[in-house]
Write a structure and sequence with these properties.
The complex is a heterodimer.
Chain A lengths: L1 H11 L1 H20 L4 H11 L2 H12 L4 H11 L2 H12 L6 H7 L5 H9 L6 H25 L5 H25 L1 H19 L8 H19 L9
Helix pairs in contact in A: 1-9, 2-3, 2-4, 2-9, 2-10, 3-9, 4-5, 6-8, 7-9, 8-10, 10-11, 11-12
Chain B lengths: L2 H23 L7 H19 L10 H16 L4 H21 L1
């Protein structure tokens, strides 16, 4: 069972690993231009494994910001992972041990979260282990590639790779939106509010990561109050 | 540049703490109905918010991106797997941007 879940994770994450490889090339380019060496760029991606967080982090490094500033910046940009990690705790097989949970924590990213939530029934930690044993190396390798080669990859290929990440998000929220009117309505409202929030210049002072947190918390909270799930529904 | 390593470690420690602590500390099923509903809705809302309008600026042109969004929604609506939907979006962008390059 563990083996099967592990390999299922490996296979399912293939489009994510490809997308990560492509996206992290840009990360490698950004790392080098902020003054990091090639090995340091690779190390940052291997240990942080976070696109928005790393982009923001490199900007702090480039500006020689303080370490406190770096910590606060990372906390704000990655705060949405608190919600995702809490949601995963409810999806996880209940007998999952602490070591397994600590390893799973390495792999809480937007895309891997989307993949994990789409797994029918309870989530096995071995599924996540399969996912991270391919995606973290892909992310690190892509960063090293970007750091070494700069930006000679054709733009059109980068475009195609980057959009596949969004394709994966869509594949997660559309099927339940088709089944449930409430989730369908939520998707439409989320699209609309996110568009407004991103286009109105008066919100420009809020970072993208923070916008995602505010909208997610607000919309989910209102929905939870207006449309509480039935007691027997599994989260 | 040994300062770089302090930056990198700071990034890694904060990011990991945010990811791992809720998973590790919340061991039981949450009983509160509103909180359970909230956590139930979070994934769909957050993925929707992250997809739009960000997808429109993910490619070389908003046209190829919008086409990919529509293809992705249709493919997912009619039961396409994760891989099929993702590959469908990528191919749409490749085809449209190749076409735009040739014109």
């Amino acid at each position: 069972m563990r083996k099967r879940n592990y390999f299922k994770g490996l296979v399912d994450c293939l489009p994510i690993a490809l997308g990560y490889y492509a996206v992290s090339i840009t990360i490698g380019v950004a790392a080098v231009s902020s003054g990091l060496g090639i090995a340091e760029a690779g190390l940052a991606s291997f240990t942080s494994f976070s696109s928005a967080g790393e982009f923001a982090g490199f900007s702090v490094i480039a500006a020689s910001g303080s370490f406190i500033e770096m910590a606060v910046m990372q906390l704000i940009i990655n705060a949405r992972y608190i919600l995702m990690s809490a949601a995963l705790s409810q999806k996880l097989e209940e007998n999952t041990g602490i070591i397994e949970r600590l390893i799973m924590g390495l792999g809480v990213t937007d895309e891997i979260f989307g993949l994990s939530i789409a797994v029918p029934g309870r989530l096995s930690p071995y599924y996540t282990f399969g996912v991270i044993s391919l995606t973290i190396p892909a992310w690190t390798l892509g960063t090293l590639t970007g750091a070494v080669l700069g930006s000679i990859m054709p733009d059109i290929l980068i475009s195609a790779f980057s959009v596949s990440l969004y394709g994966m998000f869509i594949a997660v929220f559309i099927p339940p939106a088709r089944k449930s009117k409430i989730i369908g309505g939520l998707v439409v409202i989320s699209f609309a509010l996110s568009y407004i929030f991103n286009k109105l210049p008066m919100f420009d002072f809020i970072s993208n990561g923070t916008k995602i947190i505010i909208l997610t918390a607000l919309i989910s909270l209102v929905s939870a109050v207006l449309f509480p799930i039935k007691e027997e529904d599994d989260v | 540049m040994s300062e770089a390593y302090i930056y990198i470690v700071t990034m890694a420690v904060v990011t990991y703490a945010v990811r791992a602590l809720p998973l590790t500390l919340i061991r039981k099923k949450i009983k509160n109905r509103t909180l359970r509903s909230f956590l139930y809705y979070v994934p769909y809302v957050t993925l929707s918010v992250m997809t739009f309008p960000a997808i429109l600026s993910a490619t070389g042109s908003p046209i190829s991106a919008a086409a990919a969004l529509i293809v992705g929604i249709l493919a997912a609506y009619f039961g396409g797997s994760l891989f099929v939907v993702a590959a469908g979006c990528s191919c749409t962008v490749l085809i449209i941007e190749l076409f735009m390059m040739l014109n």
